[in-house]
Amino acid sequence: MNLANRKAVILVSGGLDSATNLAIAADQGFELYAISFDYGQRHRCELEAARNVCKAARVRRHITVPLDLRAFGGSALTDEIDVPKNRSEAEMSAGIPITYVPARNTIFLSIALGWAEVLGATDLFIGVNALDFSGYPDCRPEFIEQFQTLANLATKSAVEGTRPWTIHAPLIRLSKSQIIRCGMELGVDYGLTQSCYDPDLLGSPCGQCDSCQLREQGFAELGIPDPAQNF
Fold it and tell me: According to CATH, what is the number of the domain 7-222?
């Protein structure tokens, strides 16, 4: 398929997964339009990482959408709730953790869908992963499939157009080490990324939250140091 000048909107958080997701979209030949969200997250330093990742990838345009999800809270990332630390794999896989932000990916994809329609794009890339132990319901293949169905029902471009929407989730069945290996092959600089849920005021990672532990495990399985020296 010739993707020359074909636009794609890529969700970029500034984390390891989203940086890899962006690199995959670039490798597939899409014209890159990146979107990030300033949603009241306690790890807001990820937005600077997102800007750096997008600059390195030479995206055509990168926007950051203000969206304060603290208005309803309900998550350790957007409310005065402690971020779980030093959890075992069994604890991580026992249920949906308090770091789940209610309907976050549904909200983010919906906004990205609107921008993509304005751009004339019908491809969205999101770096969700179903194998992480965190178990978020909006990171599952079933969610991505159903959102794609929704996009093709709910947009003017799909109803009147000739090309259907595709929601790309290239990392969804990969382990963290597989994601890192893929990104390294594509030249991703993981030193630019930020994964921690609870960094300090200077943006230094805690090394103890689920996200930090999963990242550490991924690099350890490959036997290579984390270039961000997060731990």
Answer: 3.40.50.620
